[in-house]
Amino acid sequence: MSGLSGTTWYNEERLPYEGFGTSLAKSTSPEQDFPQWWPAALSRILFLLELPENWDSYGAKKINQQIAYHAAQILLEITRPGIPEPSIVPTVRGNLQFEWHTKGIDLEFEVKSSVLISVSFEDAVTGDEWEKDLDYNLIPLEDVIRQLVSRT
Amino acid sequence: MKNELPLPDFTSPPLIEVAVSVQFEPLSRLVVPEIGLLWQHYGSRFSHVEQRPPIDARFEKLGVRVPLSQKPGFQLFDTPPLPRIWFLDDSKRELLQIQQNRFIRNWRKIEDDDDYPRYDSHIRPRFLEDFIDFQSFLASNNIGKVVPNQCEVTYINHLKSGDVWKTHADIGKVFKFWEPDFNEGSRYEIEDASFQIRQLIKDSEGEFLGRLHITLQSAFDENDDPLFVLTIIARGKPLSNDTDGIMDFLDLGREYIVRSFADITRPELHYLWGRKD
């Protein structure tokens, strides 16, 4: 198919691709290296989507489907081999939050929209500590995920 | 980053389609009855309607692993997604595509002698006019407000074989970064070739805005002659959340596309396409 928004299609019958090898290069596709805990994480998200309005009896909002979708996508995008399973918790604003509390690292991020996430990071070993709102540049999150993986 | 050098300009560029798009937060009230109202609103301007599957939301971000396919591999919604609707004019050259989170305007070459109507005098003003009209329609029907999150410009080119190159193995005679005599020096016969390049789009301060995606496919035209399909997409965040911010990214994206196109293709072909600058 042509460009995403384009409408032009091409006959690819004469463009066979027959690959018999197995992947030699490290895949860049999250589909090809789902973490083992991914099915459980997805089940958890589906469960949280079923929570009714006021699920905490203090007026919490129902989890927003679109936010949950983007949250799952972001989780896949930042995932790398060796990353431990996160806790997935609902927030009273109707968003989802992912949390890791392991090996001295406390990492939490709440997905607030398709492009906005709030990250909180604390490292008891190095003393590093910060909170940031991130949108299109997720490099700070990528860096702490790398630290998390290297320590587990 | 914006470049002050004049943009490369071609009398007859090999363009066969241009699409200009805005992606926004989903408009949950833009559903089937409202689509009917929109069709009525367009009247005879876009009298033909077709239904297509929706395009997934796509975002250019830094610090994430790049998916080969954007399909997320999971589905969380219990209802099927609303379709993308095509609104076509009588000639089928002009097309609007609308879905809950996207507005796209296309120009398409239908006949061989259709001339590319130019970005500044046709593509840009038509997009702007129709996008403003779409936003007015949303407001007057209480459907919601566009909150943009990504903008996109797509140029699709058909590079036809001829005097300069004859088979897909001649890819080096088309693109500067490929050795021109690559095929002659190759131990085995080359049947076809393709490539994909991604470049970063940055603002004047060097801050990340998005990416340029350059994709080449080998293909054949209706006469079975070889051609290369060169698709260049500039996608990134609007410079601000209003229409000016959207247009600013689209203009910048178009500049990246035109400069990259000229940068990667060989001067022998520029001569055929009537390079003027």
Structure description:
The complex is a heterodimer of chains A (152) and B (277). With 152 residues, chain A is of the alpha+beta class. Chain A is built from 3 helices and 5 strands. Chain A has one domain. A 5-stranded antiparallel beta sheet of chain A has the order 1-2-3-4-5. Chain A starts with 37 loop residues before the first helix and ends with a helix. About 15% of the residues of chain A have low confidence. Helix content of chain B is 22%, strand content 28%. Chain B is built from 4 helices and 9 strands; from the N terminus they run E-H-E-E-E-E-H-E-E-E-E-H-H. Chain B has a 9-stranded antiparallel beta sheet with strand order 2-3-4-5-1-6-9-8-7. The two termini of chain B are 21 Å apart. The interface between A and B is large, with 48 and 52 residues.
Order of helices and strands of chain B: EHEEEEHEEEEHH
User: How much helicity do the residues of chain A have?
Assistant: 25-40%
| Poorly predicted ranges of chain B | 68-72
Largest sheet of chain B: 9 strands, antiparallel
Number of domains of chain B: 1
- Class by helix and strand content of chain B? alpha+beta
Beta percentage of chain A is: 15-25%
Number of strands of chain B: 9
Q: What's the quaternary structure here?
A: heterodimer
Radius of gyration of chain A over all CA atoms, rounded: 19 Å
